[in-house]
Amino acid sequence: MNQYNKPGHYAERPMEIELIRSMSQAPLPAKPGKTPETLPDPPPDPGEAFIIKPAADWLQLGNDQQHDEMLFGEFWHEGELCILFADTNVGKSILAVQIGNSISRGEPMPGFPTKQQPENILYFDFELSTKQFEKRYTSTLHGNYRFAPNFFRVVFNPAANGIHKFASYADYINNALENAIISSRARIIIIDNITCLRSGTDSAASAISLMRNLQALKNKYHLSVLVLAHTPKRNPVKPVSRNDLQGSKMLLNFADSAFAIGESQTINGRRYLKQIKQRSSSQVYGAANVCLCNIIKPYNFLQFEFNGYGTEAHHLMHYTEQYRHNTENCILQLRQQGLSMRQIASETRLSSSTVDRVLKRLAKDYYAGS
């Protein structure tokens, strides 16, 4: 028998092997510069609610991050969850598609800079039918508009039957949104509009829950999100404000920025864009400097055309004696038709308290004159 096959016999290992073996068993020397103070911070613990750092560290972290580029001028920056709100039939969807088209091509709209690198766009369209969408972006003479191949339009699947797998409709929608983001690799998301994704009868609470989940998805996947929302019929005498956001102005607490489309009461067809909230920059387009636009369709693309700047006050309805008289007559006629004060307020774009005051004053004048 060969002596090296005997159990327990290790005496005749070559010197080189013994040297390597002894070196591997020795403690490793510390690498220079790798002290506990210089080791990189561990990733945040997902089980903890808060991340704690010295304020100076947050400043350094901000310095290391790239500057957020504009996606739609000063209105919407990269990395923001932004709300665009307006009354119905004012042009929210038209502008949103135009913004998405601009970003997907890396070509800015005149007057509104955007990043030059084309990006994948997910446009969740819960407003228009396929035929309605087609009519906006085609013409008999010029045919269909050529969208960039990285502009994706998303609609509800009428045959979808997976909702029973989730505890709630909200969970189902959040999972579907995340799946779409992952599969498309899109980092720019446009949702038209938030009302169509709500669940239950409490629309405000449902919308707030959705906004909270959108913020979570934004932070997880480094998204930029534009959410469209309606305003109820508003008083055309008053300037657009955060109080006009339908459901709850609490939605703005979950948004990084917000802007609105106003409809001119003095120039037919004129629209204006006004900043309502901003964090990435100071306010540029407030009441004293709104962006003026018109909706046009050159060739086969329905769009907003930038027409300079102006003051919001110039485009509000002026409160005159004739306006007051017409408003009172309208309220009285609606009341005689049996409408409630809330219904009258909705029809006239006035608050319920204003309608109540007008009706009481009219009743008082009637009895005083009888």
From TrEMBL:
Transmembrane segments: none annotated. It comes from the Bacteria. Residues 26-47 are annotated as: Disordered. SUPFAM superfamilies: P-loop containing nucleoside triphosphate hydrolases. It holds the Pfam family AAA_25. This is AAA domain-containing protein. It comes from Mucilaginibacter frigoritolerans. The lineage of its organism: Bacteria, Pseudomonadati, Bacteroidota, Sphingobacteriia, Sphingobacteriales.
